[in-house]
């Protein structure tokens, strides 16, 4: 069969065979099948063609097509098998080589969902024009035939249906029809004004990446480990691989991919079901999900396919094995620990890893530490182990070793050595050392009594009297502000002297006279409140809620404002005006985070904006949702959502 022509870039093999039929003028599809495949018992399959071994054997010896090249470059095989294990991939490839193509759909099983397929083959109007200029004719591109791809990943325009059926199980299921034989529309259907345009484009580009980038097969746990690590980093799951709140996870996902969009693709939207596809894809259930499920999860988590396929899931404490940190072990700092027990500290909610060496030494580290930068550090020793205890017992009575040198050799402090010697029931008194106290009765902290000399007392009194002569009208509070250290020392160790040298201020005995000019005090406090509120509002730092307490702490007349608001009408009115409610403070945080994201040049998803703004308890309020929608629309106006796919 020397007449079979070239196959174009990204052309699906079905299209190349259809062009061959048209160019040679075949009037019978049976004759075409007999010439190309040596049989007429064959359907014109678009995605998983079979009999490819027989097909390539009939080509010219100089033709560049091979079975592997057809499967990898001109079918939908790379897309549908991207997340399958190596055994199933090899079996499907073998069936495409041979004559049992119908078994492929049995192997795929639930992955071959009818609602994810399209009834007709499709094309992109811009690709038609481009192909005619480059190759002289238009042809079917394979990425356009993937059911979940709604737009062209290269030209970002909507795909159009032809009259060529995608799956034909009737009398004409042997027909091969070329794109140029179809009635084509020339209009350019841009998606720039279409709902969810960015999401559809990202999905199409992700599918194109899966088709164009061959990669080694991975186990299902490889992908779920990547997902669970990323979920833990953004706070949607625990480090023990449990989703914190399914409803919150689904809501965060729907902020980026609304249910109407998911339904248009063909995926179920019953998020309350335990078998919901999003939850099944994220957890290590052992069931393989369809490629579109993985695409949506990766876009949701901003996880690039290049990292997903080429890099192993990062361990919370780097890659093992991990070193033993027992100083007296023969494998000290050697990588001999193969496993780490991951848990979450109940008190701090921090990730915790527990490492146990063969010598019995067990230690903990807090993480995550993905790069393993702290692998030679430990945060807590759980068990010193038998080898450590034996080393201590063998050298406890050695007169040539001091307690300090023994502690250094063991990697602990002397008190720890004493306590473990008691646990091992070793003699309390060591040779050559003074009598030691029982470590059980050794206090961890012994307060030291201060030594107060007459010279120190004389010096402090002299300084205080000098200040008293300088400020004869100051009361105790004013004197404390002039020299806080001297006043505090005397109040602690010489209180009677301070009291004897205090002046007696006049006091109000119930008459109408007042010692404070409240009108002047009101004006002073009001001015300070204005300045403080303005400073809090215009600060470049992360916004904090403006409360009465936050303002009062920063003004000079603190006591007056707190205890005498009824005498400070201007200050009271101004406080009521500038103090924020929880909703007002939350809206200000949303706008501040929006501004920071725009300035940094990094787009942010709506659920991420909600999380960094700390809205967990207020997110259901209408004012908060309106502020979130407005802020996110402004963010979208600045950024065109990236494809999330590495080149």
List the helices and strands and how they pair.
Elements (H helix, E strand, L loop, with lengths): L12 H12 L4 H9 L14 H6 L9 H7 L3 H4 L5 H12 L5 H6 L11 E4 L1 H11 L24 E6 L31 H16 L7 H14 L12 H11 L2 H7 L11 H6 L8 H10 L4 H6 L11 E2 L11 E3 L2 E5 L6 E6 L5 E6 L12 E4 L1 H11 L7 H8 L3 H10 L30 H17 L5 H7 L1 H10 L1 H6 L17 H21 L9 H5 L5 H6 L5 H10 L3 H19 L5 H7 L9 H17 L9
Antiparallel strand pairs: 1-2, 3-4, 5-6, 6-7, 7-8
Outline type = flat
Helical percent range?
40-55%
Low-confidence stretches: 641-647
Beta-strand segment tally:
8
Q: Average pLDDT across residues?
A: 83
Number of alpha- plus pi-helical segments: 29
Q: What is the SS-derived class?
A: mainly alpha
Work out the strand percent: 5-15%
What is the distance, rounded to the nearest whole angstrom, between the alpha carbons of the first and last residues?
38 Å
Radius of gyration over C-alpha positions, nearest whole angstrom? 38 Å
Largest sheet properties:
4 strands, antiparallel
User: Spatial order of the strands in the main sheet?
Assistant: 5-6-7-8
Structure description:
With 647 residues, the protein is mostly helical. Among the domains are: 13-181, no CATH class; 218-310, no CATH class; 454-500, no CATH class; 518-580, no CATH class; 583-638. It has helices at 13-24, 29-37, 52-57, 67-73, 77-80, 86-97, 103-108, 125-135, 197-212, 220-233, 246-256, 259-265, 277-282, 291-300, 305-310, 385-395, 403-410, 414-423, 454-470, 476-482, 484-493, 495-500, 518-538, 548-552, 558-563, 569-578, 582-600, 606-612, 622-638; strands at residues 120-123, 160-165, 322-323, 335-337, 340-344, 351-356, 362-367, 380-383. The strands form 3 sheets. A 4-stranded antiparallel β-sheet has the order 5-6-7-8, with no helix packed on it. The longest helix has 21 residues, at 518-538. It starts with 12 loop residues before the first helix and ends in a 9-residue tail after the last helix. Residues 641-647 have low confidence and may be disordered.
């Amino acid at each position: 069969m020397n007449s079979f022509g070239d196959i174009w870039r990204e052309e699906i093999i079905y299209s190349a065979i259809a062009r061959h039929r048209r160019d040679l003028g075949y009037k019978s599809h049976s004759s075409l099948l007999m010439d190309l495949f040596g049989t007429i018992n064959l359907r014109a399959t678009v995605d998983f063609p079979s009999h490819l071994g027989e097909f390539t054997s009939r080509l010219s010896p100089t033709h560049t097509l091979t079975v592997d090249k057809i499967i990898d470059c001109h079918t939908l095989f790379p897309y549908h098998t991207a997340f399958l294990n190596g055994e199933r991939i090899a079996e499907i490839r073998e069936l495409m080589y041979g004559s049992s193509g119908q078994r492929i759909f049995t192997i795929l099983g639930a992955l071959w969902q009818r609602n994810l397929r399209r009834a007709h083959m499709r094309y992109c109007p811009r690709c038609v024009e481009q192909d005619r200029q480059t190759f002289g004719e238009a042809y079917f591109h394979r990425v356009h035939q993937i059911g979940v791809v709604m737009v062209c990943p290269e030209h970002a325009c909507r795909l159009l249906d032809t009259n060529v059926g995608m799956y034909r199980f009737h009398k004409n299921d042997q027909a091969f029809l070329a794109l140029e034989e179809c009635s084509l529309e020339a209009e350019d259907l841009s998606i720039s004004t279409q709902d969810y345009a960015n999401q559809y484009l990202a999905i199409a580009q992700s599918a194109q990446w899966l088709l164009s980038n061959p990669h080694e097969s991975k186990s299902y746990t490889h992908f779920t480990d990547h997902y669970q690590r990323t979920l833990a980093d953004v706070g949607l799951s625990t480090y023990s691989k449990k989703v914190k709140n399914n409803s919150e996870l689904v809501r965060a996902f729907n902020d980026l991919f609304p249910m109407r969009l998911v339904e248009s693709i063909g995926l179920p939207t019953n998020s309350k079901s335990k078998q919901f596809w999003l939850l099944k894809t994220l957890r290590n259930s052992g069931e393989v999900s369809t490629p579109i499920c993985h695409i949506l999860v990766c876009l949701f988590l901003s996880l690039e396919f290049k990292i997903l396929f080429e890099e192993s899931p990062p361990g919370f404490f780097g890659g093992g094995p991990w070193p033993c940190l027992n100083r007296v072990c023969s494998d000290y700092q050697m990588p001999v620990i193969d496993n780490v027990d991951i848990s979450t500290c109940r008190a701090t909610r921090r990730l915790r890893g527990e490492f146990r060496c063969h010598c019995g030494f067990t230690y903990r580290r807090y993480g995550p530490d993905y790069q393993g930068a702290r692998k030679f550090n430990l945060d807590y020793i759980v068990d010193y182990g038998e080898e450590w205890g034996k080393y201590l017992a063998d050298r406890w009575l050695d007169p040539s070793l001091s307690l300090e040198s023994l502690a250094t050799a063991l990697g602990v402090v002397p008190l720890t050595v004493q306590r473990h010697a008691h646990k091992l029931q070793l003699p309390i008194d060591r040779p050559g050392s003074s009598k030691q106290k029982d470590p059980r009765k050794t206090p961890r902290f012994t307060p030291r009594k201060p030594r107060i000399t007459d010279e120190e007392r004389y010096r402090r009194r002299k300084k205080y009297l000098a200040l008293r002569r300088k400020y004869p009208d100051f009361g105790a509070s004013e004197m404390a502000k002039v020299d806080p250290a001297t006043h505090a020392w005397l109040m602690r160790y010489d209180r009677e002297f301070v009291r004897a040298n205090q002046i007696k201020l006049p006091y109000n005995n119930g008459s109408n006279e007042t010692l404070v000019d409240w009108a002047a005090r009101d004006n002073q406090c009001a001015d300070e409140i204005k300045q403080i509120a303005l400073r809090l509002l215009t600060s470049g730092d992360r916004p904090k809620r403006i409360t009465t307490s936050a303002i009062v702490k920063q003004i000079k007349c603190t006591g007056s404002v707190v205890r005498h608001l009824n005498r400070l009408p201007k200050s009271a009115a101004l406080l009521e005006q500038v103090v924020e409610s929880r909703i007002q403070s939350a809206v200000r945080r949303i706008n501040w985070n929006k501004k920071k994201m725009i300035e940094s040049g990094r787009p942010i998803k709506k659920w991420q904006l909600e999380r960094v703004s700390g809205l967990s308890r207020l997110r259901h309020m209408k004012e908060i949702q309106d502020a979130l929608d407005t802020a996110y629309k402004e963010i979208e106006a600045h950024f065109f959502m990236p494809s999330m796919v590495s080149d």
